[in-house]
C-alpha cells in the first residue's frame, strides 16, 4: 500500500490506480471510436472492428481487475446489496470510506461493463451482409448470426443511452461541487474530501506489472481475433 503523498502541500489519497485510469480512457476512446467509425461506414468498418475488439479486451481486463486489482477497483469494494444501497441513499454509512464508486455508481459501472461487453461480444458474430462481418460470424449458422446482429443493433442504443446518463451524472456531481473527473486523471483525491484515515489504493510497480501482463495476454487474444476475421472472405 502506498502512503498519502503531498502535492502542493495538500495531502491526497490515491483512489484510482494507473491501470484503472488507463482502462477508463482507453475504453472511452474505443467505444466512441466504434460508434463514429460505424456511422462513417465504408472502409472505416475495419476500424469499427478494431475498436470493438479492443473494447471487448478492455471489458474482460476490467472484470478480472475487479477481482485482483487495487482496493477501490475491486468489486467487493463497490458492488453493494440492498442494505448497502439503502444505507447510501439514507446517507448514513460512516464505517465505509468515502472513496471510490458509491453504491449507485458501483451498479452503474457493472451495468456499463455488462452492456458494452455484450455489445462487443455480439459484434463478433454480426454481419452487414455486404462486406463486413465479425471474426466468428462464419462459425455460426445464418439464423444465429442474424440473431446476434439484431442484438448488436438493439444494444448499440443502450450503449449510447448509458454514455449519455454517465456524462449527465458526472456533470450533475460537478454542478454540486463534487469533481469526479480530476481523480480519474491523476488518481488522487484530497484527503480533506474523504472520511478520516481513508487508506490509499495500492498503485505500486507490482500491481502495474500484473495489469501489464494481463492486458498483454488479452491483446494477444484480440490480435488473434482480428487476424481470424481478416482471413474470412467478404460476406456478399
Ligand atoms: C464513451 C465513453 C465512456 C465510457 C464507456 C465510460 C465508462 C466508464 C466506466 C466503465 C467507469 C468505471 C471505471 C472503473 O471503475 O473502472 C467510468 C467511470 C468514470 N468516468 Fe467514464 N466513460 C466514458 C466517458 C467518460 C468521459 C468523457 C468522462 C469525463 C468527462 C468520464 C468520466 C468518468 C469518471 C469521473 C468516472 C469515475 C466516476 C466515479 O468517481 O465513480 N467518462 N466510466
Ligand atoms: C463496444 C463496442 C461496439 C460498439 C459500440 C458497436 C456499435 C455498433 C453500431 C452502432 C452498429 C450499427 C448498428 C446499426 O446499423 O443499427 C454496429 C454494426 C456492426 N458492428 Fe459493432 N459495435 C461494437 C463492437 C463490435 C465488434 C467487436 C465487432 C466485431 C468484431 C462489431 C461488428 C459490427 C458489424 C459487422 C456491424 C454491421 C452490422 C450491420 O450493419 O448490420 N462491432 N456496431
Structural account:
The protein has a three-stranded antiparallel sheet. The chain has helices at residues 18-40, 45-68, 75-78, 82-90, 103-123, 142-175, 181-186, 205-230; strands at residues 5-7, 10-14, 188-190. It has eight helices and three strands; from the N terminus they run ββαααααααβα. It is mainly alpha-helical and 236 residues long. The chain has one domain (15-230): Fumarate Reductase Cytochrome B subunit (Up-down Bundle). Helix content is 62%, strand content 5%. Helix 2 (45-68) packs across helix 5 (103-123). A hairpin with a 2-residue loop joins strand 1 and strand 2.
Q: What structural category characterises the helix and strand content?
A: mainly alpha
Q: Give every kind of bound small molecule, once each.
A: protoporphyrin IX containing FE
Biggest sheet, spatial arrangement of strands = 1-2-3
Largest sheet: 3 strands, antiparallel
Radius of gyration: 20 Å
Strand composition percent? under 5%
**CATH structural architecture:** Up-down Bundle
Helix share, percent: 55-70%
Mean pLDDT over the full residue set? 90
- The 3D shape can be described as elongated
Tally of contiguous helical segments = 8
Count of DSSP strands: 3
Please report the distance between the alpha carbons of the first and last residues: 56 Å
Low-confidence stretches: 1-7
CATH topology: Fumarate Reductase Cytochrome B subunit
CATH class: Mainly Alpha
Amino acid at each position: 500500500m502506498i502512503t498519502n503523498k503531498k502535492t502542493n502541500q495538500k495531502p491526497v489519497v490515491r483512489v484510482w490506480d494507473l491501470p484503472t485510469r488507463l482502462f477508463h480512457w482507453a475504453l472511452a476512446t474505443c467505444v466512441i471510436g466504434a460508434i463514429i467509425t460505424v456511422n462513417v461506414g465504408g472502409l472505416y468498418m475495419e476500424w469499427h472492428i478494431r475498436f470493438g475488439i479492443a473494447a471487448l479486451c478492455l471489458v474482460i481486463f476490467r472484470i478480472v481487475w475487479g477481482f485482483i486489482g487495487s482496493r477501490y477497483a475491486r468489486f467487493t469494494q463497490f458492488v453493494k446489496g440492498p442494505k448497502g444501497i439503502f444505507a447510501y441513499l439514507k446517507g448514513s454509512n460512516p464505517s465505509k470510506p468515502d472513496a471510490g464508486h458509491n453504491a449507485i455508481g458501483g451498479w452503474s459501472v457493472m451495468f456499463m461493463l455488462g452492456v458494452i461487453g455484450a455489445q462487443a461480444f455480439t459484434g463478433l458474430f454480426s454481419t452487414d451482409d455486404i462486406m463486413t462481418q465479425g471474426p466468428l460470424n462464419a462459425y455460426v449458422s445464418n439464423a444465429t448470426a442474424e440473431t446476434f446482429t439484431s442484438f448488436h443493433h438493439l444494444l448499440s442504443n443502450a450503449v449510447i443511452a448509458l454514455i449519455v446518463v454517465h456524462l449527465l451524472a458526472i456533470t450533475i456531481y460537478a454542478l454540486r461541487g463534487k469533481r469526479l473527473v480530476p481523480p480519474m486523471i491523476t488518481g488522487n483525491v484530497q484527503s480533506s474530501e474523504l472520511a478520516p484515515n481513508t487508506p490509499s489504493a495500492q498503485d505500486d510497480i507490482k500491481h502495474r506489472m500484473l495489469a501489464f501482463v494481463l492486458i498483454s495476454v488479452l491483446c494477444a487474444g484480440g490480435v488473434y481475433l482480428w487476424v481470424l476475421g481478416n482471413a474470412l472472405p467478404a460476406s456478399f
